[in-house]
């Protein structure tokens, strides 16, 4: 049996038609150009500075401590809370400002009230019917629109199939072993010895995200798992930093200007860092399972999924012909369902005998960044401060 195939959904966004404001949707690549012009979706405010925050060794900062009017999504760390906001926006194809008064996030607009009730409804549905398993989410009903479709559209029923893989993939019978797929990957990258000899790099290039045109970007990585990405924008740097233990993000134009990663998201950031030196990636996750091959951009790919700490799940799509990695999707749990992050790799070229992607696209619920590298300097010394939290916090 092939992976679950679903028919295409109608991509029409009702609210965009009803109201030109909605063209400023959040996290929809199609409209990011519009969003960049208006910037409404990415303009946020600095919430009251919340003071020194403990790193992962200490207690994470919780939603109800940082925010003013949280009634349902309490008891979760700030990064997870922001993940739920991303899931709301993605499910309803809405910009933050379509539920919020952007200057005053705590104010309850009518739509925000509806959303809160919906969040309670979702919790109740899962609790009452599914033993608390998070199988129903906003996406289950909404699928890119403010009001869910009620009746099957016959064109959808009989139209061309669209692939919508499940998050959690079982091992399928008759597949090649995960080991053989990883062995081919390691060989394609240049072999284990070459990979082991690459222990750090500094890369430069451009990143195109919300703002059209390539923004200057820098990437620092040190084996086994330190990694920092810096994108220079007119409004300040966007920095993702992971020092091997703690990870955080700093974004100048959002509701929360900097916050730490926790739980499955922190493990996901660690995985991203490990992917800079992928020679030992097989050891990082466990319970590897190989599902049915599929196709990405016309390329046949092997599909391998593994599980990590704190609920992390990651799916790897290896090109059947070249053996190289074309895509990785990782998931972190949140109070409102799994938060996905996807990286698409392309344009592999040799650097110090190791094949490295010179282009990748990093997609998360807060946007999609297309990175093009111009230069990679292998095995250069990197100051430890590069991997530290950009906004220092007391421990
Ligand atoms: C579909 C409606 C909806 C969308 C879209 C939405 N939110 Fe929210 N937001 C809510 C609800 C509901 C709450 C309150 C949750 C609760 O009471 O537990 C909330 C609370 C918040 C808070 C806490 C404010 C405070 O101090 O109490 C912040 C910050 C926030 N949202 C940011 C965002 C950002 C940033 C986006 C876009 C990425 C976004 N939201 C998108 C519905 C939405
Ligand atoms: C079981 C299906 C279902 C789920 C799950 C669901 N919704 Fe809804 N939602 C609906 C339906 C149906 C409507 C339209 C109701 C109407 O037309 O009166 C709606 C309407 C809304 C609206 C009002 C949209 C508008 O017209 O302004 C918001 C906001 C909303 N949902 C948010 C959410 C959020 C956030 C989640 C996840 C926490 C969620 N919903 C989960 C079924 C669902």
Describe it:
The model is unreliable at 1-55 (pLDDT under 50). A hairpin with a 2-residue loop joins strand 13 and strand 14. The chain has eleven helices and 15 strands. The strands form two sheets. Strands 8-7-6-5-4-3-15-14-13-12-11-10-9 form a 13-stranded antiparallel β-sheet. It has a two-stranded antiparallel ribbon with strand order 1-2. The protein is of the alpha+beta class. The longest helix is centred in the N-terminal third of the chain and has 20 residues, at 110-129. The protein has helices spanning 14-18, 29-38, 63-66, 78-92, 110-129, 138-142, 154-158, 178-189, 192-197, 263-274, 281-284, and strands spanning 5-6, 162-163, 200-208, 215-222, 226-233, 236-242, 247-250, 258-260, 286-296, 299-307, 313-319, 325-332, 339-351, 354-364, 367-378. It binds heme C (HEC) (2 copies). One heme C is lined by residues 26, 67-73, 85-86, 88-89, 92, 94, 96, 98-100, 105-106, 111-112, 115-116, 254-255.
């Amino acid at each position: 049996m092939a992976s679950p195939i679903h028919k295409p959904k109608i991509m029409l966004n009702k609210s965009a038609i009803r109201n030109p404001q909605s063209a400023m949707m959040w996290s929809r690549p199609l409209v990011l150009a519009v969003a960049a012009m208006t910037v409404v979706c990415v303009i946020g405010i600095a919430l009251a500075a919340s003071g020194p925050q403990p790193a992962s060794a200490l207690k994470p900062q919780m939603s109800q401590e940082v925010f003013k009017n949280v009634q349902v999504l309490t008891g979760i760390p700030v990064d997870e809370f922001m993940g739920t906001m991303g899931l709301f926006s993605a499910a309803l194809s809405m910009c933050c400002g379509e539920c919020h008064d952007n200057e005053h996030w705590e104010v309850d607009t009518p739509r925000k009230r509806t959303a809160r009730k919906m969040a309670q409804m979702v919790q109740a549905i899962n609790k009452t019917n599914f033993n608390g398993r998070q199988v129903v989410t906003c996406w289950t009903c909404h699928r890119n629109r403010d009001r869910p479709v009620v009746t099957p559209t016959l064109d959808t029923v009989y139209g061309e199939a669209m692939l919508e893989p499940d998050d959690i993939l079982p091992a399928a019978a008759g597949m090649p072993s995960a080991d053989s797929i990883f062995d081919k990957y390691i060989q394609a990258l240049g072999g284990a010895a070459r990979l082991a000899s690459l222990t750090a790099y500094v890369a430069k290039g451009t990143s195109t995200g919300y703002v059209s045109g390539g923004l200057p970007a820098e990437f620092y990585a040190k084996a086994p798992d330190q990694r920092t990405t810096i994108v220079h924008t007119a409004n300040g740097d966007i920095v993702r930093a992971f020092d091997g233990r703690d990870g955080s993000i700093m974004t100048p134009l959002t509701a929360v200007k900097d916050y730490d990663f926790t739980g499955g998201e922190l493990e996901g950031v660690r995985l991203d860092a490990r992917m800079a030196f992928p020679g030992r990636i097989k050891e990082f996750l466990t319970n590897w399972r190989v599902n049915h091959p599929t196709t990405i951009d016309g390329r046949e790919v092997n599909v391998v999924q593994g599980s990590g700490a704190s609920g992390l799940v990651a799916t790897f799509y290896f090109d059947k012909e070249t053996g190289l990695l074309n895509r990785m999707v990782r998931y972190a749990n949140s109070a409102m369902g799994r938060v996905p992050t996807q990286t698409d790799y392309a344009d592999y070229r040799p650097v110090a005998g190791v094949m490295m992607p010179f282009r990748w696209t990093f997609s998360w619920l807060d946007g999609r960044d297309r990175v093009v590298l111009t230069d990679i300097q292998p095995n250069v010394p990197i100051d430890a401060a590069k991997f530290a939290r950009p906004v220092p916090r007391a421990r």
